[in-house]
Amino acid sequence: MDTIVTAILLGIVEGLTEFLPVSSTGHLILATELFGYDAHQWAMFNVVIQLGAILAVVVQYWRTFWAVGMGLLKLNPMSLRFLRNLLAAFVPSAILGLALKDYIDVLLGSPSVVCWALIVGGVAILLIERSAKTGELTGIGELPLRQALGVGAAQCLAMVPGVSRSGATIMGALAMGIERRTAAEFSFFLAIPTMLGATTLELLDNRDALMNGTMGVGWTEIAIGFAVSFVVALAVIRMFVAYVSKSGFKPFAWYRIVAGAIALVWLGAR
What we know:
This protein has 270 residues and is an all-alpha fold. 78% of the residues lie in helices and 0% in strands. The radius of gyration is 18 Å and the shape is globular. The two termini are 19 Å apart.
């Protein structure tokens, strides 16, 4: 397959799935099997184009970030708690991610792990949707520290490919009584330090390839993937928040279960 076409397709997959509770990493791994390209060659590409999705969050919520930034300059208590909660939720995955990186890299090469994680995660979403009480905790700056730490602990589950970072954080938040819209937005904001950290680590690990121009995929493909993931992710964020605020997460749960089952059958039949 032409590298430009592959870059566009992967950008679409990343943009569509990064902020939905369906696992962007899992879909990119399965796309490797479906499209038949060299996964090692495109590994750094898959990480770097996540920055396009991050930019979509910044653009969509720039007023929030501006208000928080101005509030921090004035030592506004709500802005300080916003930053505290975001950092507190980021720390658990940062520590475990560094400690378990080699093990995580092994899991990233296993499509079957992705399939089972999609199925189990779908069942978990259905159970949490059924049992979680109507959320009353609203506003990230209003959350107690223990809730922020709980969301951060839930995010650690997403180190298993196919679990979904957004799915784990949103479901963890719902289970602790945080209402749907705030849970989704907390997941979006938490993606910024998390994905920046993952991208930085990947770039450092591949600095020799970057310097020598031997990273496998050119900057043209990366730029295209970045742009496509940004545009698609921006559209997804706007529609997703409006949808889940009214309708919940069950359709995504059933999608995960069906997609995981079909992928398992397909992998077994090859």
